Prior knowledge:
By secondary structure, the chain is an alpha+beta fold. Helix content is 36%, strand content 23%. The chain has helices spanning 4-7, 74-91, 113-128, 135-145, 149-152, 202-212, 216-235, 239-258, 267-281, 305-313; strands at residues 9-16, 19-23, 40-46, 50-57, 64-67, 70-71, 96-103, 157-160, 176-179, 187-192, 286-289, 296-300, 320-326, 331-336, 348-349. A hairpin with a 2-residue loop joins strand 5 (64-67) and strand 6. The chain is globular, with a radius of gyration of 20 Å. The structure holds (3R)-3-hydroxy-3-methyl-5-(phosphonooxy)pentanoic acid (PMV).
Amino acid sequence: MTDATATGIGTATATAHPNVALSKYWGKRSGGGKIPAVPSLSVTLAGLETRTQVTFDASLVEDRFVLDGREADPLARARVVELLDRVRAGAGEERRAEVRSENDFPTASGLASSASGFAALALAATRAAGLDWDAPRVSDLARRSSASAARSLFGGFVELAAGEPGARDEELFAARPVAAADHLPLVILVCVTTEGRKAVGSSEGMARTLAVSPYARAWLDEAPRIHARLRDALLARDFGEVGELAEASALAMHASAIAAGVMYWNGATLEALGALRALRAGGTLAFATIDAGPHVKVLARPGDLARVRSAMKSVPGVLRVLEARPGEGAALVASRASGAPSLAAARGSVA
Ligand code: PMV
């Protein structure tokens, strides 16, 4: 193994998984930055993974970002550089970095790769720079890039509170775990309804909702109530109540967005919602949640998996159904910080 100090290299690799919000974050506080206006609660997904390697290298003249084997576009690169700049400021680090990130799930799968992407990047970048930040601090770093990424640092069921009005982005604001992955037996079926990318990004969609929706106030008032009830139902392991409230949160979020002209659904989204109502009428508990896109994510009990899966596969317009379960948080796969006393590879979860 080479000496990291001698080569001027500090490197670390981390993994993280996407998460799906059961109670939705939709809307930021007005003070600037990415502080949520409403609380959210998500489940981190096993089986789908982002793996990111960050290497600070004295011989680099600028930061590089390679995503799934290809040089990333300037916008994506700019967001990565922004996070690296925060890490450099915290570590007194001056070297540029090469970031290599791979998703083992398709970008247009309806699972936001930004959550797992920024969670893995935040963990790998801090460790590559030799920063021993604890889980809340790394979660806060990820949150500044994408608020939902703050939740992917942790496994199982994870909460991100609402910021106080006037909260500032510079203050530490992290997600926190609420219950372990095995707390509630659950399967999440991602029903993919298009291969295309979303038209309106989540930041733009939520900003427009709060600015012009006649139902923005209703959403901001109702979301914390749904969240509190969902949290209680989760802690009581009440699947039916969790599912009903998760669907209510998604429908309220989308209703407020639609009234602002922010429409993420397509025909298959409605067909899928109808199929779930039919399943429930027949006695099978299965519920929908929908993010900033047309795909429907179904929450079901493991014992109903075969029935729910086959019902969703036959919905007109549903192209594919991916299966996920509650899983673990971000983890360090290997690290070698320059100047570190030991060059041994480290492995472990951040939480
Ligand atoms: O953090 P962002 O900008 O990816 O926004 C996430 C918004 C939703 O996915 C729709 C809801 C959520 O809480 O994840």
